[in-house]
């Protein structure tokens, strides 16, 4: 389905100036359920990963080099999308992004303790003319399980002006808890059931900006009305002493960890890093 109309919207709650003040940053995030941190991620790191994702899409024939790709979107039933995503999930650079020092510093402040970086990292590629498949208003808690105190970091891998879409959120909607859901048409997955209260927040983002939101914060995708591809990442974090559902420790969509790590260096510290933490794991 196309994005839900936003008659008006406001800027995101901005915590950039609070980066060095962990208590204040945490208080803002906890109150609003979402916080924008501008320039959090080095642009060179994001550009490198975007180039790898694009090259993989061209290599498997999912998209063509140098042209716009109307209709291209995440589709688990598409063999070419599957081939692309299998390549993406094997990229060490993709899995290294969530561990960058600036991100870890911010997430430690927001979660308020030792951080568990979920290994289930998600890459997305959305082409033009995909409005029927734009993700509807929803909460991540439906998919994550475990503790509700999980935070998603969403970041575009290029500048994200209005025509490219991005993500819109409803600040403070997490205070309503987990909402009823229904099956979503077009995009698949789940959508919020019933009327939403609260004003939407959205604004253009630049490469390096990160939007961090609570698992119960209502958010939705915005239609890609440009002639370019929109690449983005979803990374998830929580306090390490809170329960985590077992499937959050599996790869996203495809592969086993052994397959992903097959060509990595033997003693790579990113391999199975979460096993070094004492976790309370809830079985699915």
Features:
alpha+beta; 7 helices; 284 residues; six-stranded antiparallel β-sheet; Jelly Rolls; 14 strands; two-stranded parallel sheet
Low-confidence stretches: none
What is the CATH class name? Mainly Beta
- What is the CATH third-level topology name? Jelly Rolls
Determine Rg (CA atoms, Å).
18 Å
Number of strands: 14
Share of helical residues: 10-25%
The SS-based structural class is: alpha+beta
Shape: globular
Compute the average pLDDT. 94
Write down the domain tally: 1
Strand content: 15-25%
- Measured between the Cα atoms of the first and last residue, the distance is 29 Å
CATH architecture descriptor name = Sandwich
Order of helices and strands: EHEHHHHEEHEEEEEEEEEHE
Largest sheet: 6 strands, antiparallel
Number of helices: 7
């Amino acid at each position: 389905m196309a994005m839900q109309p936003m008659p008006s919207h406001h800027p995101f709650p901005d915590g950039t100036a609070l980066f060095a003040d962990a208590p204040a940053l945490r208080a803002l995030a906890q109150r609003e359920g979402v916080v924008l941190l501008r320039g959090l991620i080095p642009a060179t790191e994001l550009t490198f990963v975007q180039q790898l994702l694009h090259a993989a899409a061209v290599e498997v024939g999912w998209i063509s080099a140098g042209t716009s790709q109307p209709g291209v979107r995440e589709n688990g039933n598409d063999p070419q999308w599957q081939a692309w995503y299998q390549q993406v999930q094997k990229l060490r650079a993709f899995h290294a992004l969530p561990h960058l020092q600036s991100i870890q510093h911010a997430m430690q402040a927001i979660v308020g303790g030792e951080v568990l970086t979920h290994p289930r990292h998600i890459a997305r590629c959305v082409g033009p003319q995909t409005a029927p498949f734009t993700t509807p208003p929803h909460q991540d808690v439906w998919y994550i399980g475990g503790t509700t105190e999980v935070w998603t970091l969403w970041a575009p891998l290029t500048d994200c002006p209005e025509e490219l879409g991005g993500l819109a959120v409803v600040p403070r909607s997490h205070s309503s808890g987990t909402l009823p859901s229904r099956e979503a048409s077009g995009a698949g997955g789940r959508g919020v059931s019933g009327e939403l209260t609260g004003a939407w927040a959205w604004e253009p983002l630049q490469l390096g900006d990160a939007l961090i939101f609570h698992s119960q914060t209502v958010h939705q995708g915005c239609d890609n009305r440009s002639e370019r591809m929109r690449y983005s990442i979803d990374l998830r974090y929580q306090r390490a002493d809170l329960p985590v559902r077992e499937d959050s420790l599996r790869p996203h969509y495809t592969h086993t960890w052994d397959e992903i790590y097959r060509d990595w260096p033997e003693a790579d510290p990113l391999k199975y890093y979460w096993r070094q933490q004492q976790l309370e794991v809830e079985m699915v």
